[in-house]
Specification:
47% of the residues lie in helices and 21% in strands. The protein has 472 residues and is α/β, with parallel strands linked by helices. The protein is elongated and about 80 Å long.
Length: 472
């Protein structure tokens, strides 16, 4: 149910209303002989209109106005669609389109896709522009009812046309203005500001990042996301007793994208929940296949972002893990949730509470990359851990200080009674060091790089690995 106050209006999202609003939204000033506005699919028409404004202003002897391109979207619009239905979402989009069409300050507008709108305003300076945008947002808020008390929130970015661009055609200027406005809008979300102006210091790679963010959203449907597995070998038995599921993105055009880049990008954009759900399903399904084909009972570590614990209070994450374990009949104690940076949590106590719940249900909790970043004794004490993974930076550090720190981490882990995995072990010397310290498992290129599930199954079937032989 959509609700509004002053006066209170309640209406259903029915087909008749949607049709009426849609019809209204397609009526624009071009039909009344005034300046044209684009409908949702007319992005090229919008580009042409913007190009004309630039040419017209450039031809004037003096210019009293700057041209501003504005990019605007609805925060958490996918959540709105999920909660209230696509019909209600379409009503909101069409009401915003109408407001852009009939705003006298706006020279041209369009909706490119989903909930992203573009429009052009000519005004004296950025202060004047901000006032006009604020007025527009206020008018939109009046026309779009609240959704069960949740108010519509917008992210807005803008960029102005420079009158002193050398060696640049109008077409280039149009593309640059639109992409820079998009970048400013993304920074509006990132900085939690309503309106953000494009700045050069956002960096040249921001355009590529913007493009990759869109590609990342489509990556699962395109079959670009895969899951590889890296074995964890028991130093005592030489057997593969666990594996870590590692997400990989192979872009159809750009090739392999580093996880160090796309995982933070997924967290910033919110796509980490969608990708995380895919990895959970794939990893648990593959674990069931591994158990069946090898006759072993190894465990699977799955990396989980703090964002997944925070989204919908972690309910989606719990549903995904419990339902998939039930589907494939995987015991909870064969799944480890691997977390990295808990300092990023908005409310650490809530995250800890969820981790305690998972541990109480039999799941293992592993802390990855311990010893770097904001790692501390407090984190070890506060988290319900069953395992810590020593960061490879300590494993490869051969200095006396590095070795002393490695020993201290090992001692601390023993004090709180958790298993210790030395990750990033690549050489015989490194293996002998972590073995002498009493680490429980090793993980790294010395044993195997991340591999596909079929190759992993072949490795497991071969049985015990002679670690002393490869580590000598």
């Amino acid at each position: 149910m959509l609700q509004h106050s002053e006066p209170t209006v309640a209406f259903a999202c029915n087909a008749a209303l949607l049709a009426a609003i849609t019809t209204s939204s397609l009526y624009n000033r071009s039909q009344r002989g005034e300046r044209s506005h684009c409908t949702k699919s007319d992005f090229e028409e919008f580009r042409a209109a913007l190009n004309k404004e630039i040419l017209d202003e450039d031809c004037k002897d003096t210019s009293k106005s700057d041209i501003y391109v504005v990019s605007m979207d609805i925060q958490k619009f996918k959540t709105t669609n999920a909660k209230f239905g696509y019909d209600c979402g379409d009503i909101i989009l069409n009401k915003i389109s109408n407001e852009l069409i009939f705003d006298n300050n706006i020279k041209a507008s369009c909706r490119l896709s989903a909930d992203v709108f573009y429009f052009v305003i000519l005004t004296e300076n950025s202060d004047s522009l901000r006032k006009k945008i604020a007025s527009l947002i206020e008018n939109i808020a009046k026309r779009v009812p609240s959704l069960n008390g949740e108010k519509l929130k917008l992210s807005v970015g803008y960029c102005n046309h420079s009158w002193h661009i050398d060696d640049m055609s109008c077409t280039d200027a149009v593309s640059s203005l639109i992409s820079h406005a998009d970048i400013a809008r993304i920074f509006s979300k990132k900085n939690n500001t309503l309106i953000e102006e494009y700045r050069n210091e956002y960096g040249e790679n921001a355009v590529e990042k913007l493009s990759l963010e869109y590609d990342l959203e489509q990556s699962i449907e395109k079959g670009e996301i895969s899951v590889l597995y890296q074995p964890k070998v028991s130093i005592k038995t030489g057997l593969i007793e666990g594996v870590e599921a590692l997400c990989r993105w192979t872009h159809n055009e750009k090739g392999l994208i580093s996880p160090a880049f796309f995982i933070p990008l997924a967290e910033e954009s919110g796509y980490v929940n969608k990708i995380g759900e895919y990895v959970i399903y794939k990893a648990i399904a593959d674990l069931a296949d591994i158990h069946k084909r090898t006759g072993t009972n190894i465990s699977m570590a799955i990396n989980v972002s703090i964002k997944q614990f925070e989204t919908n209070q972690g309910l989606d994450l719990k549903r995904q893990i419990f339902d998939t374990c039930d589907m494939y009949k995987i015991p909870h104690n064969k799944i480890q949730l691997e977390i990295t940076e808990t300092t990023a949590a908005k409310d650490l106590n809530k995250v800890v509470s969820q981790l305690e719940y998972f541990k109480g249900e039999g799941f293992g909790i592993s802390l990855d990359d311990f010893g770097v970043g904001h790692s501390s004794l407090f984190r070890l004490k506060s988290l319900p851990l069953s395992q810590v993974k020593i960061d490879r930076a300590f494993v490869i550090d051969r200095t006396d200080t590095g070795q002393a720190l490695l020993q201290n981490i090992q001692d601390i882990s023993r004090t709180i009674d958790v298993e210790v995995v030395a990750e990033g072990v690549e050489t015989a010397e490194q293996f002998q060091t972590v073995k002498s310290l009493g680490c429980d498992y090793i993980q790294g290129f010395l044993v195997s790089k991340p591999i596909k599930v079929d190759k992993l199954i072949s490795m497991i079937k071969k049985g015990k690995i002679d670690l002393d032989a490869i580590g000598s």
